[in-house]
Design a protein that fits this description.
Blueprint lengths: L1 H99 L4 H104 L4 H61 L2 H6 L3 H15 L1
Helix pairs in contact: 1-2, 2-3, 2-5, 3-5
């Protein structure tokens, strides 16, 4: 009877354990499903953010193009306003002449011919201005492409000092390791000498009891002087190595500073030359471009 009861208790305990395990499995499954749902939501959010970022980049590009078109349209509006002002002045002159010379058809005809001729000249002038603006825009595009090529070439050449600096840094590290090895060798040599001196002192100590006190003192002074000389020699070598290392680091830092300042000057000059308003004015553009190219080749 007791065995049967124990078996039932074990069975109930096993069933309870299985139910706990199943409940735990269901809870873990729910947690996994919730985590997967959250991952999916995060992926959707990431995709949405990437889409918004792409839209923002497109908008910025369109904004830049719109600003360029706006600047061009402003120039056109200024030219048209000038033309309209001239046309208004001519119309006022025409009306004044028409009022004063209404009695003479011949004079009126001559005035009309003069006005028509002036209008034709104004139209031709406006066409020339439009052609000049188009040529300026083409020159701007050409100069922009040329400056881009120069900047790309300078960017490639900028990596050359970096590689040179890395080589110098690697050589400097090798030299520093060699100096450290030399210092370790000197320290080991000094330790060996000190050990030999201590051994000699311990070997000669029993004999010193039978020697005069003055001789003992002379031997101690001699050994102390030898140890001091060895230590000073090691310190001089270490100081010389450290001084050479600092001097080399200082030279490299000055070289890098000069390269950085030179590249910054070139960058500032290119940025000034690439200004759209200065380029639009068309003042000394080709000469400035040739000067920039010559300056970059000279600095390289």
């Amino acid at each position: 009877m007791d065995m049967h009861q124990q078996r039932d208790e074990k069975l109930e305990h096993s069933q309870a354990s299985e139910e706990c395990v199943e409940a735990e499995n269901r809870r873990m499954k729910e947690i996994c499903e919730a985590a997967e749902a959250r991952v999916n939501r995060l992926q959707l959010t990431r995709q949405g953010l990437e889409g918004e970022l792409q839209s923002l980049q497109d908008f910025r590009r369109e904004l830049g193009e719109s600003e360029a078109r706006t600047a061009f349209l402003k120039l056109m509006v200024t030219a048209l306003a000038h033309y309209e002002l001239q046309e208004t002045q001519l119309m006022e002159q025409l009306q004044a002449k028409t009022a004063s010379l209404s009695d003479s058809n011949i004079v009126q005809t001559l005035c009309k011919d003069n006005i028509l001729h002036n209008k034709t000249q104004n139209k031709e002038w406006l066409a020339e201005q439009v052609t000049a603006l188009q040529a300026t825009a083409h020159r701007l595009e050409t100069g922009k492409a040329e400056l881009k090529r120069i900047l790309i070439r300078l960017g490639k050449e900028r990596s050359s000092p970096k590689r040179t600096g890395e080589k110098e840094t690697f050589a400097l590290q090798s030299e520093l390791e060699a100096v450290e090895k030399q210092i370790q060798d000197l320290e080991a040599d000094m330790a060996a000498r000190m050990l030999c001196n201590v051994s000699a002192v311990s070997y000669l100590y029993p004999r010193r009891n039978s020697l005069p006190e003055e001789l003992h003192r002379q031997e101690l002074d001699l050994e102390t002087e030898l140890m001091r000389d060895s230590q000073q020699q090691v310190e001089k070598v270490v100081e010389g190595c450290e001084k050479a290392h600092r001097q080399r680091v200082y030279c490299l830092e000055e070289q890098f500073d000069q390269i950085y300042k030179r590249q910054k000057q070139l960058y500032d000059y290119f940025r000034k030359q690439a200004s759209p308003w200065r380029c639009a004015e068309g003042r000394n553009y080709s000469t400035s471009t040739q000067y920039v190219i010559a300056l970059s080749l000279h600095n390289c």
